[in-house]
Amino acid sequence: MLRQYMGIKGQYPDAILFFRMGDFYEMFFDDARTASKILGITLTSRGTLGEEKVPMCGVPHHASKSYVAKLVNNGLKVAICEQTEDPKQSKGIVKREVIRLVTPGSLIDEGEVDDKSNLYMAALSGPSTPQDRKKRATYGLAHVDLSTGEFRVTEAQTWEQLIEELSRIDPAEVIIPENTYLPKSETLSSYYRETLKRDAFDPGRAGDILREQLGVRSLAGFGCQDMTWGIISAAALVSYLQDNQKVIPGHIKELVSYRLGDYMFLDESTCEHLELLKTLRRQSVKGSLVQMLNKTVTPMGSRTLKRWILYPLIRIESIRRRLGAVGWFKDSPALREEIREELGKIYDIERLNGRIVLKRANARDLLALKFSLQRLPAVKEHLESSTSSLLSEIGLRLDTLRDVADWIEEAIHKDPPVSLKEGGIIKEGYDDKLDELISLSRSGKGWIAEFAASEQKRTGISSLKVGYNRVFGYYIEISKANMHLAPPDYIRKQTLVNGERYITESLKTMEEQVLDAEERRVALELEIFSKICDDIAIENGRIKETAHLISEIDALAGLAETAEANDYVCPEVDEGSDIEIVEGRHPVVEQTVRDEDFVPNDVHLDSTDHQVLIITGPNMAGKSTILRQTALAVLMAQMGSFVPASKAVIGIVDRIFTRVGASDDLARGQSTFMVEMNETANILRQATPKSLVILDEIGRGTSTYDGLSIAWSVAEALHDRGGKGVRTLFATHYHELTALAASKQRVKNFNIAVREWNDQIVFLRKLVPGGTSRSYGLEVARIAGLPEEVIVRAREVLESLESAEFEGRGRSGLAHPSSKKDEEELLQLNLFNPHDDKLRDWIRKLDVSSMTPLEALTELHHMKEYLDYETDN
User: Fold this and answer.
1) What is the pTM of this model?
2) Tens digit of pLDDT for each residue in 707-760?
3) Which helix (H) or strand (E) element contains residue 671?
4) Which of 68, 187, 615, 765 is deepest in the core (most CB within 10 A)?
5) So what's the pLDDT on residue 122?
6) What are the two backbone dihedrals, phi and then psi, of residue 140, each rounded to the nearest 5 degrees?
7) 785: DSSP letter
8) Using CA atoms, how far apart are residues 142 and 122, in angstroms rounded to an integer?
9) Residue percentage of the chain with pLDDT more than 70
10) For residue 739, what are the contacts with CB-CB under 8 A and spacing of at least 6?
């Protein structure tokens, strides 16, 4: 057995080998040591190799799924090795072979994967040498969800674009070629990776592999015939799946090709800062946009909604069709409730379909599919009469799969066991030969019951019983007190503590008949079940399309449910440049504030007058909230959702860029400031006049003047980019930036209103026109709980700095040197004569933020005249 184990293990050296032995999967040697720690199971030993015992651990076969998932979720690969022949009929050791390789991207069973999320594996390809990259820097990316059959392919013109798209897909596993010359990437390094030989990425074979898998002669129908590197990536994925699953994944018959420009592009930073799928601080779904919007009632609808959030539309007609469908559902509450009630009874058809095609389904999976399909006629009837063009079209296209439901209804028992090897999964009356075996088995069991009664009467032992177990078969059991009454024809079989077990020739004969009938019945039921699954698998394309339509209906109805519950409005979406949001609210924050009502705000952006809004105000006033809620309103509108506002006009946005909040990446050796600059550089390189840029506190993490200079320059660059500029919301504590409005015609100043009262500040949370000259940092620090003595000293320091209180030759009066040498080192150039209080006061009293350029020049001229006069006299 160990020789057999070692031979199979040698074929899969990097995987934990689950070696089937009877009712257990056993692991040996290093596999046992590793698995026992992760799974929390006992490490034992079995036999010896040389002079050392062989480490061993095991898990029950019937409960293996959770153990496999735990190992895979810990970054390991598991090879499932099964007995491939009947032990009763084998001569010598039972034959075994690996039937499936389980990796993080190939989990498909219920309980192994999150039903609300897709589980993708992706493959990357590109030019193999630096020289080839210079000729044509195109990269291919394909991703597939084995559990649902979703299969997509695209290409990117730059490596950076490819990595950004990969982060949006967020695969559980990434396939790359061996000895690759693909550029290095920290993002790529963070994923579980499998390296395949370059043969798997062979351009000469890629097209043939893909066409064979999809069952077509040409890829033109999928729109990817010109995607050279995309086809190579897709073919590598297909080869990898076929090798690992040991079967052809027959439900993967459709390939969706897309261009990165087909949808609004969201990079990793934007998804994180806007907290689309999880919160930035706690990495939790609770508090994210998807959690707030998700009112779906099926797993398929939940996955579709998540995809819509990550891939907002940019085509006007498609957006309006979705909005129209949401509007119809919102305006038809009774019908919406009826449809959602039917949808709530539908199981995960997509993943049921996948398990059936991959021969991993049991009888209860088929019943779940039948129950789901029986809900479809009512849904179809409601939708066909809808005034929404999208919903009525879905209603017409919706295949209720009545034939598939009937196959299952006719054949599968209404309450089958989980295991296919227990029998009782096929209805009586479905197959004549099976009915004969059921009758024989039943009559045999009836004979045994009669036999027990007759033996009690014959022996006079009322406690005599006839039992069965898998080791000894049928037996007669007599207690120790009655053993002297056992007839001579009883043959002793097993001695117990409290009695004895016997057999007779007649019982042995009937046992053989009954067990033979049972084994033949189970084998025939399994054969019939497999045939039904094969018939259903042939229709997997129809099932998959129906599942897709159901997921869209569910997502649209869920968005309508959210819109009605939270008082959302249908946005007007057009090709213009205006973004006008009246009484806009943050969809998450408004649901979570408890101590005060959420204050709505108006925001107006365009490309002619209000293109760059400089927003000033203190911390905690709500600048970041206004920035985020504006970006989320645009994203929600373009994904087809109503938005939290009283009115919303959205000029199509091709990309949303965000730089919000402080964050570092110490694992990559990047400080907060470096991360901020990287993200800002990405924005300045890629933003277009159709983009929306959200910036919050650019320039922190360095000296005040460095930060202010960077923030000023970035704001100017966004205003001037391409001569047309970029729609931008720019929140900052550098109130000096408000002076930009004097020189840049499309820059406008706004601030978050606050009021001072009894040395305290009151946050009004209202965005109002105009700039502000204060940050209220000390007041916020007091609210945060800094000790009062610290606040008092800070105010002294602030007053000293603001009044430019200098001693001697320019040294600040805040510090007191301990020696003449220290004093000399602290000297700095002073802009003003220490005794020239008049000029200093003059400048301090100027309201620079409200002055026109001409007024500023006039004041400067007067100052020069004053200095000339003082110098001459």
Assistant:
1) 0.84
2) 888 889 999 999 998 778 999 999 988 888 888 998 898 999 998 887 766 666
3) none
4) 615
5) 97
6) -105, 145
7) T
8) 6
9) 90
10) 848, 849
Q: Residues 16, 9: contact at Cβ < 8 Å?
A: no
* CB-based contact 566:641 (threshold 8 Å): no
Complete DSSP assignment for 531-567: HHHHHHHHTHHHHHHHHHHHHHHHHHHHHHHHHHHHT
**Which class for 379: exposed (0-12), middle (13-18), buried (19 or more C-beta within 10 A)?**
buried
Q: Give the span between the Cα atoms of 52 and 30, in whole angstroms.
A: 14
Distance of alpha carbon 316 from the chain centroid:
27
What share of residues in the chain are helix, strand, coil (percent, to 5)? 50, 20, 35
- Residue 102 sits at φ, ψ, to 5 deg, of -105, 125
Map residue 734 onto helix, strand or coil: coil
Residues whose CB is less than 8 angstroms from the CB of residue 780 and which lie 6 or more positions away in sequence, other chains included: 618, 619, 620, 761
Dig out the tokens for 139 from the structure. 């990269």
Nearest to 439 by CA among 520, 361, 502: 520
Residue 464's nearest CA partner among 446, 447, 482 is: 482
Residue 556 to residues 334, 563, 602, 809: CA-CA distances in angstroms? 15, 11, 27, 71
Note the pLDDT of residue 153. 97
Rounded to the nearest angstrom, the gap between the alpha carbon of residue 112 and the centroid of all alpha carbons in its chain is: 15
Closest to 110 measured CA to CA, from 347, 286, 343: 347
What is the DSSP pairing of strand 52-60 with strand 24-28? antiparallel
Convert the pLDDT of each residue in 586-625 to its tens digit.
999 998 876 568 899 999 999 999 999 999 887 777 889 9
Contacts 24+ apart (CB under 8 A), 161-165: 161/260, 162/124, 162/126, 163/187, 163/188, 164/265, 164/267, 164/268, 165/141, 165/260
In the structure encoding, which two tokens stand for residue 447, read together? 């004979």
Predicted confidence at residue 668, as pLDDT, reads: 46
The SS3 assignment for 569 reads strand
In this structure, the number of other CB atoms found within 10 A of the CB of residue 597 comes to: 8
- How high is the pLDDT of residue 664? 44
Residue reference for tokens 């043969």: 199
Structure tokens at 595: 């101590």
Q: Beta-carbon neighbour count of residue 107 at 10 Å?
A: 22
Confidence band of 135 (pLDDT split at 50, 70, 90): low
**Cβ-proximal residues to 18 (8 Å cutoff; 6+ apart), any chain:** 25, 26, 27, 59, 64, 68, 78, 79, 80, 81
Residues 6+ apart with CB under 8 A from 845: none
